[in-house]
Amino acid sequence: MGNARRAVAAGLVLGAGVCYCVYRLYRSRRAAGAAARPAQDGGLLPQVSGLSVLPSRAWGAPSSLHPDTDLPKSSSNLEAHHLQRLIHLLESTDDPLIQEQALVTLSNSAAFSVNQDIIRNLDGLSIIGRMLSDSIPKVKEKALNTLNNLSMNVKNQEEIKVYILQVCKEIELSPLNSDLQLAGLRLLTNMSVTNDYHHMMTNAIPYFLHLLSEGNERTQIQVLKVLVNLSANPVMTRHLHSAQLDPAPSLLSLFDNGINKDILLRVLTFAANLNENMKNEEGIITQDRYSEDSIFFLLSGHSTQYAQKLLGLLHHQDKEVKGQAAKIITLQRGDIQSPNPLLLFC
Question: Domains in the chain, please, with CATH?
Answer without folding.
Answer: 12-29+74-191 (1.25.10.10), 203-335 (1.25.10.10)
